[in-house]
């Protein structure tokens, strides 16, 4: 930069150089200096008492957790504590549980746990049921299976036709009895005119079961069977069914939405010609084109493709006071101002970028400004927002024809005749994308993703192997391979470590002593991953169990010299339950059956470790994941 400035001479050059230097080295500060969230927080119902619910029957009780048998219909066992509500119905106590709050449009997240063969349900507005059921390993789920939208019922119809309009889940994403499962559901309430006549049916916009989409835009013409109310209304309470089977519920989080929205008025634009790689200061520049607009678009001039900047100004109308989250998708860069405050700074560097910002706004009118510059190639300008009682929407979106009907079908890999290995990127939890991974599909229908960076078994799943749309559609920009069904995430991080003693903390970062050595293919055409650590050679094989339902991992450690204080971490979770006979429940999310349990230790109820044998030159660790 300094050598560039030296090319300017004279007073005019010095001023220009100073302006350029100031512009390039001053990064605007958004309104909120902390990193904004991806979405506004949900409300959470208290599970320390039942105050957020209407009067409950004796079948509902508070607990800290719950246990249930895997293979037998043992009773649901509430554990001491708070944070969980448990339904244990009896002949005389079988009441449903209703929330005090009522909802129209709602986004809901909830976790649930069921014993073997149990049956329950969550009714939106007390009328429209998402089924809760023990559907573990059901191959062809129906509407009565877990995640199904239960059928409607008409007693006046002939036998065999009384039930209608049930919707099975697209796939069975259920876990085993006694494990915590998750629903994330977006529900759109029915619409009514001023006279109370229904104008639009209720709809489940999306239902995710254990993170996998099982329903999308399913319309309901009326309440489903066994609903609490026969009519339809704009509002109603959530209801958890209490008269069928035992169920445990925790972490009920939600957002309710009105039909309010932000809107812009008096929107004007000015276009400037120039070749920029960062957002220029437009003050004093002469516009090449001006006009009015109803939308925010990347270019109001179809003939101007590259090398320009835009400034939109107008008035933003806010219906309700509160905190608003704005999100910009921009190629190449831009700035969003409200009340002359910078809310979002998006510098594509140059190129496509996504940025967010928070701002507290009062109800009423606010000055609005959006600046934008386009260098070359793709041009994108999109602004999204959400606020109190307002769902995520586009702000003054460009009016385009719907392309959902032309959306390409996902590229799926299924029906394998031999193990298949694919290098890609992979998502894991809420962290950054994993880049050094390989996913292995198996003809038995049990698959996994392996972290080549540290030797961790990242995730396992059943059913369809993989969705590779992110690797091949639209240039494969994300390079993401997504599992073909709900995936169980296991423990990432360093797998093996040398500790001073059994109580020493596990390292957060990978030791330089770890060396990945590639993989070999065994006689079954399955990969055996190889690495070394502190002079010990490891061979790591993951394969389906004989019944093709679960995953067994076999780690063989070989060394020429005895080693000491070397440990392998099998699992880490917020809580590990020791169930006996070498079986553990890991974080309530999966079971782990360990063949050589006598050597294992559970540290502080959160880490399961096993030592690498010091007296022998071969040590084998074998365990099976059940979910």
Q: What would you note in describing this structure?
A:
It is a single chain. With 627 residues, the chain is mainly beta. The protein contains three helices and 46 strands. The protein has four domains: 1-30, no CATH class; 43-256, Sandwich (Jelly Rolls), CATH 2.60.120.560; 260-394, Galactose-binding domain-like (Jelly Rolls, Sandwich); 418-626. The longest helix has 16 residues, at 10-25.
A few lines on this structure:
Helices cover 4% and strands 46% of the residues. It is globular and about 80 Å long. The two termini are 57 Å apart.
Strands, helices and their partners?
Elements: H1 2-5, H2 10-25, E1 43-44, E2 60-67, E3 77-87, E4 97-103, E5 105-113, E6 119-124, E7 128-133, E8 152-153, E9 163-164, E10 181-188, E11 191-192, E12 198-200, E13 202-209, E14 212-220, E15 236-240, E16 247-257, E17 263-273, E18 289-292, E19 308-318, E20 322-331, E21 333-338, E22 341-347, E23 353-361, E24 364-374, E25 380-387, E26 390-394, E27 412-413, E28 420-426, E29 434-441, E30 446-451, E31 456-462, E32 466-467, H3 469-472, E33 482-483, E34 488-489, E35 496-498, E36 515-521, E37 527-533, E38 536-544, E39 551-558, E40 566-572, E41 576-580, E42 583-586, E43 590-594, E44 601-603, E45 607-611, E46 618-626
Antiparallel strand pairs: 1-16, 2-3, 3-16, 4-15, 5-10, 5-16, 6-7, 6-15, 8-9, 10-13, 11-12, 13-14, 17-18, 17-19, 19-24, 20-23, 20-25, 21-22, 21-24, 25-26, 27-32, 28-29, 29-30, 30-31, 31-34, 32-33, 35-40, 36-37, 37-38, 38-39, 39-46, 40-45, 41-42, 42-43, 43-46, 44-45
């Amino acid at each position: 930069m300094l050598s560039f400035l030296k090319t300017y001479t004279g007073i005019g050059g010095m001023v220009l150089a100073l302006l350029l230097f100031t512009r390039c080295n001053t990064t605007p500060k958004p309104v909120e200096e902390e990193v904004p969230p991806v979405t506004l927080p949900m409300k959470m119902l208290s599970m320390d008492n039942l105050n957020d619910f209407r009067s409950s029957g004796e079948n509902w009780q508070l607990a800290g957790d719950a246990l249930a048998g895997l293979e037998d219909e043992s009773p649901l066992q509430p554990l001491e504590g708070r944070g969980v509500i448990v339904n244990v119905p009896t002949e005389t106590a079988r009441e449903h549980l209703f929330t005090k709050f009522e909802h129209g449009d709602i986004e809901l997240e909830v976790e649930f746990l069921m014993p073997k063969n149990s049956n329950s349900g969550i009714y939106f507005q007390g009328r429209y049921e998402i089924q809760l059921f023990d559907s573990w390993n059901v191959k062809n789920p129906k509407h009565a299976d877990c995640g199904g939208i239960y059928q409607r019922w008409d007693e006046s119809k002939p036998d065999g036709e009384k039930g209608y309009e049930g919707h099975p889940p697209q796939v069975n994403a259920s876990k085993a009895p006694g494990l915590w499962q998750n629903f994330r559901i977006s529900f759109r309430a029915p619409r009514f005119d001023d006279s109370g006549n229904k104008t639009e049916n209720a709809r489940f916009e999306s239902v995710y079961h254990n993170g996998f989409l099982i329903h999308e835009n399913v319309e309901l013409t009326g309440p489903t069977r066994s609903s609490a109310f026969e009519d339809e209304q704009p509002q109603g309470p959530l209801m958890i069914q209490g008269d069928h089977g035992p169920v445990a519920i925790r972490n009920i989080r939600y957002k309710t939405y009105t039909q309010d929205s932000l809107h812009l008025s008096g929107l004007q634009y000015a276009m400037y010609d120039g070749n920029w790689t960062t957002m220029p200061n437009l003050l004093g520049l002469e516009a090449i084109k001006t006009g009015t607009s109803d939308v925010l678009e990347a270019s109001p001039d179809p003939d101007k493709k590259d090398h320009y900047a835009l400034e939109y100004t107008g008035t933003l109308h806010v219906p309700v006071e509160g905190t608003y989250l704005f999100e910009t998708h921009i190629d190449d860069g831009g700035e969003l101002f409200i009340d002359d405050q910078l809310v979002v700074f998006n510098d594509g560097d140059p190129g496509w970028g996504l940025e967010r910002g928070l701002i507290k706004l009062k109800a009423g009118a606010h000055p609005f400004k959006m600046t934008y510059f386009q260098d070359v190639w793709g041009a994108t300008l999109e602004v999204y927002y959400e606020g109190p009682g307002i769902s995520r929407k586009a702000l003054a979106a460009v009016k385009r024809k719907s392309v959902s009907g032309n959306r390409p079908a996902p590229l799926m890999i299924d029906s394998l005749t031999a193990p298949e290995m694919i290098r890609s990127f992979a998502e894991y939890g809420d962290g950054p994308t994993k880049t050094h991974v390989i996913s292995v599909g198996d003809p038995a229908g049990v698959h996994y993703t392996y972290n080549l960076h540290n030797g961790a078994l990242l995730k396992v799943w059943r059913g369809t192997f993989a969705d590779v749309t992110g690797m091949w559609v639209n240039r494969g920009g994300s390079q993401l391979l997504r599992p073909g069904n709900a995936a169980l995430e296991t423990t990432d991080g360093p797998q093996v470590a040398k500790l001073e003693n059994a109580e020493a903390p596990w390292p957060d970062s990978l030791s330089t002593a770890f060396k990945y050595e590639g993989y070999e293919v065994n006689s079954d055409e399955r990969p055996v991953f190889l690495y070394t650590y502190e002079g010990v050679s490891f061979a790591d094989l993951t394969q389906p169990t004989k019944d093709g339902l679960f995953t067994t991992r076999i780690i063989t450690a070989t060394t020429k010299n005895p080693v000491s204080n070397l440990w392998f971490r099998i699992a880490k979770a917020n809580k590990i339950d020791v169930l006996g006979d070498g079986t553990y429940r890991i974080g309530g999310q999966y079971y782990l059956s360990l063949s050589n349990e006598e050597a294992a230790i559970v540290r502080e109820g959160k880490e399961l470790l096993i030592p690498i044998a010091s007296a022998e030159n071969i040590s084998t660790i074998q365990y099976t994941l059940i979910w």
